What we know:
Elements: H1 2-7, H2 10-19, H3 25-35, H4 38-47, H5 55-66, H6 73-83, H7 90-109, H8 117-132, H9 136-149, H10 155-164, H11 167-177, H12 187-197, H13 206-218, H14 223-232, H15 238-252
Helix pairs in contact: 2-4, 3-5, 4-6, 5-7, 6-7, 6-8, 7-8, 7-9, 8-9, 9-11, 10-11, 10-12, 11-13, 12-13, 13-15, 14-15
GO molecular function: phospholipid transporter activity
Protein name: MTP protein
Organism: Halcyon senegalensis
Amino acid sequence: LIQMLRSAKKRDVLQLLRRAPEEMLPFIVEAAVAAQSVASLAALSDFLDFSKEPKSLLEKFLYAAAFSPRPSGELLHLVLDKLDGKQLAPEVQETGIVAMGSLVSKLCQQKLCGLQQEVRRGVETILRGLRSAKEESEAVIYLLALGNAALPETIPTLLDHAEEGPTTITTAAISALQRFPAWHISDKVKRAMRRVFHEKRKSYEKTCRLAAAEILLDNEPSSMDVINILLATNEMEAEIATFLLLKVQNILH
C-alpha cells in the first residue's frame, strides 16, 4: 500500500481516504504518512480537518508522524500547519507538541537543521509555547518536546526550568536533559546538576535529585562527584541510596 501511495496522484490518495471504511481509515492515514510523497502529504493536508475529525484519528496521524524513521521537512510543515493557531482538544494539542519535538530531532539527525526552515519554526513554536504556558501541565508538555528535540541551543532554557521551577517543571526539565548525548553535558550543566542534587538553592523532590545524580554519573563523572554522591547517600532513603550505590558499582566495573 505504501509503495502504491508513493506513486499515486494527490486526487487518487484523497479519493482513497474519503472512500475508505471507517475502521480502515487509521491504517490508510498511517500508510500515507509513511509514504511521505508530495501527493500523499498534500492529500492528508486536504483530508484532515483538525476541527472536525475524531480525536483518535488525529492522534493516529500525529503518532505516525512522530515515529516516522526518516521524516521529511514537508511532514513537519504539515504538522505545524495543522496545529498552528487552532483551538484543539487538549490530548491532540499535547500529542502534536511532543510529535513536533520528535520530528525536529530526526530532521537534525539527518543534517537538515540548517537547511529546513520548518525546523527553526518548530523550535520557535515549542519555545514560544513554553514561555506562554499558564499551567504547569502545559509547560511540562513543551519541556517533553524540547527533550525529544534534544537541540543544544535549548539547554540554557532547560537549565533555568530545572533549577527554578516547581517540582513537576524541574522533573520534566531534568528528564529532558537526560535525553542529550554526553558531549552536550557541559561543565555548566554539571554545575547545575550538582546544585540540584546537593540542594544548594532550594529543597528539591527526591526524584529530581536522583535524576540530577544520574546525569552526573552517566557523563564522565569526576572523582569528587562520585565521592560526594556516595557521602550524600548516608542521608537518603534506603531505596535511592541502594540505586546510586549500584550505579557507582556499575561504573567501576
